[in-house]
Amino acid sequence: xxxxxxxxxxxxxxxxxxxxxxxxxxxxxxxxxxxxxxxxxxxxxxxxxxxxxxxxxxxxxxxxxxxxxxxxxxxxxxxx
Length: 80
Fold this sequence. Notes:
The chain is an all-alpha fold. The chain has helices spanning about 10-25, 50-55, 60-75. It has a domain at about 10-25 and about 45-80. The protein is built from three helices and no strands. It starts with 9 loop residues before the first helix and ends with a helix. About 10% of the residues are buried.
């Protein structure tokens, strides 16, 4: 993020991180050994697992995000 500080509730952080994780979910690494014709220079993609990047974006670590996500999902199933 670009130094933007949001004051979000834990459930809002989980929802935002879940959406980021979902958006990043389909990415895959490239084959560095494959010769590319007419290569283009793009900005380097963030490295790491989608859930780690999403957690970091909302100010959580992987384990805190996992636990908060589980609590959030459970409360949704119970209609809270």
